[in-house]
Design goal:
single chain, about 200 residues, alpha+beta, two-stranded antiparallel sheet, 2 helices, about 30% strand
């Protein structure tokens, strides 16, 4: 019985620690709202814990950009400000940007973008949205923007990767059986604005 109590207390402590880490700013080097980075003059803001919310960001016309300073808010703000793109469905979690019902290269009508699966016949390009599936610690998934593509890897820029994570990250890009594959287990695909 003593062992069961110990396990329950330990599990509660772990849960409380994860909840605190995800909800609050535990990094004293930054305040929520600090500018961390930018791509084409669109800023990446610091959010603290990945579940922290500072209200909703909308444009002057009322278009929903998302919850400040979540990952979705940055990519939608980037697409709105830099690429002049409004998504037909302006709501949803990061993982919902990708539709599993669509095939590689089909049009994702809710986002108004071409959808590529991972792996894809279409090589990733700068300004593509990279979509990550949910995980045990982040059931909402994650979304970022491809900021650089080389022969061997891609770089992304992201908002809200966590209180101690970087706004830029690189992943290996491989060509396997005539398809492009980004080597990361949670990347389900990418979306692209076609000209």
């Amino acid at each position: 019985m003593k062992k069961v109590k110990y396990i329950v207390v330990l599990l509660l402590a772990v849960f409380a620690g994860i909840w605190t880490f995800k909800k609050y700013n535990i990094n004293s080097s930054h305040e929520v709202g600090d500018v961390l980075d930018s791509l084409n003059h669109v800023y990446v803001y610091y959010n603290g814990g990945v579940d922290h919310v500072s209200g909703r960001n909308t444009t002057k016309e009322g278009y929903n950009l998302g919850l400040k300073y979540q990952c979705v808010e940055f990519v939608k703000r980037y697409y709105y400000e830099y690429l002049n793109h409004k998504m037909p469905d302006s709501y949803g979690n990061a993982k919902d940007f990708y539709s599993a019902e669509l095939g590689d290269g089909q049009r994702n009508k809710s986002r108004g973008l071409k959808q590529c699966s991972n792996p894809s016949s279409f090589r990733p390009k700068v300004n593509d949205l990279l979509i990550f599936d949910g995980s045990v610690f982040n059931r909402f998934g994650h979304v970022a923007i491809v900021s650089e593509v080389t022969e061997k890897d891609i770089e992304i820029i992201q908002q809200n990767p966590g209180p101690f994570s970087n706004s830029r990250e690189r992943f290996t890009l491989e060509r396997i059986e005539n398809k492009w594959y980004i080597n990361h287990g949670r990347i389900v695909g990418w979306l692209r604005k076609e000209v």
